[in-house]
């Protein structure tokens, strides 16, 4: 279980969030939504223990799989080596990957559809390819909690679909607690059990996506009207949910 209790973070005089109670048990996923600068990364960093809380308490497992918003360049390392670092991290700074670590790295790469890139140099991958590799690295840690900061921001539509399937399979295996931030409410609707909508430091909505990712709530969050469309296509594994932003209509909002 990863949780925050009565948590708050303040930078100078500005509270980013406060009075926050949040817990994500194994077997569930939580999407965190909010406009730019609202505090999503600060919240994830607080959950990871990288950001000290100004008030409140944090409870988390010793190892968390983390996909940062911006990756270092890892100059000269192969994709497999980068993914394998996810496994050795828990054994100490100077540990070397074993044959089993490399095997686990390949399995994780398989899971995100990047096995064929294993021998490529990580620093020569595209932005979207790197995001998938970093997701594989987080999976390869074997951690039960995965914290993903905008993990799909550079992915094309096909790879967004792949990413959503990976999250879904991690959720279905009942062995992971998953938290991710996103600017795409449809990703929350498709891959999360619960959503946290950050309206302001002390103003938020937290609950099942069916109750939180609604046209009214998303319009209030971004100041843009949206329409939510459910599509139940014949032969599809399950219904799809789309959130369509009505660009150019913000002025007509109350
Ligand atoms: N260490 C810090 N000191 C002071 N202010 C900070 C610090 N870290 C973040 N901030 C500020 O806190 C606010 C929240 O930042 P954060 O990165 O958490 O937002 P975000 O919701 O993740 O934004 P985005 O969607 O643009 O990635 C921003 O205004 C940022 O400038």
Estimated radius of gyration: 19 Å
Report the helical percentage: 25-40%
Number of helices: 8
* N-to-C series of helices and strands: EEEHEEHHHEHEHEEHHEE
Write the layout of secondary structure elements.
Elements: E1 2-11, E2 14-24, E3 29-33, H1 40-48, E4 55-59, E5 65-67, H2 79-88, H3 99-111, H4 127-140, E6 145-148, H5 157-172, E7 177-181, H6 185-191, E8 194-200, E9 203-208, H7 209-212, H8 215-222, E10 226-231, E11 240-245
Parallel strand pairs: 3-7, 3-8, 5-6, 6-7
Antiparallel strand pairs: 1-2, 1-4, 8-9, 10-11
Structural features, described:
The protein is α/β, with parallel strands linked by helices and about 250 residues long. It has a single domain (about 1-215), classed as P-loop containing nucleotide triphosphate hydrolases (Rossmann fold, 3-Layer(aba) Sandwich). Helices cover about 30% and strands about 25% of the residues. The chain is built from eight helices and eleven strands. It has helices spanning about 40-50, 80-90, 100-110, 125-140, 155-170, 185-190, 210, 215-220, and strands at about 1-10, 15-25, 30-35, 55-60, 65, 145-150, 175-180, 195-200, 205-210, 225-230, 240-245. A six-stranded mixed sheet has the order 5-6-7-3-8-9, sandwiched between helices. A hairpin with a 2-residue loop joins strand 8 (about 195-200) and strand 9 (about 205-210). It starts with a strand and ends in a 9-residue tail after the last strand. The model has no long low-confidence stretch (mean pLDDT about 90). Bound molecules: adenosine-5'-triphosphate (ATP). Adenosine-5'-triphosphate binds near residues 11, 16, 38 and 39. The site of adenosine-5'-triphosphate (ATP) has 10 residues, from helix 1. GO terms for molecular function: ATP binding; ATP hydrolysis activity. It holds the Pfam family ABC_tran. It comes from Oricola thermophila. Keywords: ATP-binding, Ion transport, Nucleotide-binding, Transport, Zinc, Zinc transport. InterPro entries: AAA+_ATPase (IPR003593), ABC_transporter-like_ATP-bd (IPR003439), ABC_transporter-like_CS (IPR017871), Metal_Ion_Import_ABC (IPR050153), P-loop_NTPase (IPR027417).
């Amino acid at each position: 279980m990863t949780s925050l209790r009565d948590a708050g973070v303040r930078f100078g005089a500005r509270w980013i969030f406060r009075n926050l109670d949040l817990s994500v048990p194994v077997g569930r996923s939580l999407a965190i939504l909010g406009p730019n600068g609202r505090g999503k990364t600060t919240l994830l960093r607080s959950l990871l223990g990288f950001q000290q809380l100004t008030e409140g308490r944090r409870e988390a497992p010793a190892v968390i799989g983390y996909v940062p918003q911006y990756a270092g360049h890892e100059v000269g390392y192969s994709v497999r080596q980068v993914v394998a670092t996810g496994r050795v991290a828990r054994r100490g700074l100077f540990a070397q990957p074993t044959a089993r670590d490399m095997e686990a790295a390949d399995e994780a790469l398989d899971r995100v559809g990047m096995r064929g890139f294993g021998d490529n140099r990580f620093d020569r991958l595209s932005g979207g390819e790197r995001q998938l590799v970093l997701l594989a690295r987080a999976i390869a840690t074997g951690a039960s909690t995965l914290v993903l900061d905008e993990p799909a921001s550079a992915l094309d539509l096909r790879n967004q679909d792949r990413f959503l399937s990976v999250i879904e399979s991690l959720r279905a295996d009942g062995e992971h607690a998953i938290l991710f931030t996103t600017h795409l409410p449809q990703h929350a609707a498709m891959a999360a059990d619960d959503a946290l909508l950050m309206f302001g430091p002390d103003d938020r909505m937290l609950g099942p996506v069916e109750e939180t990712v609604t046209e009214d709530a998303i319009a209030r969050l971004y100041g843009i009207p949206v329409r939510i469309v459910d599509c139940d296509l014949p032969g599809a594994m399950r219904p799809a949910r789309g959130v369509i932003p009505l660009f150019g209509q913000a002025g007509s909002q109350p």
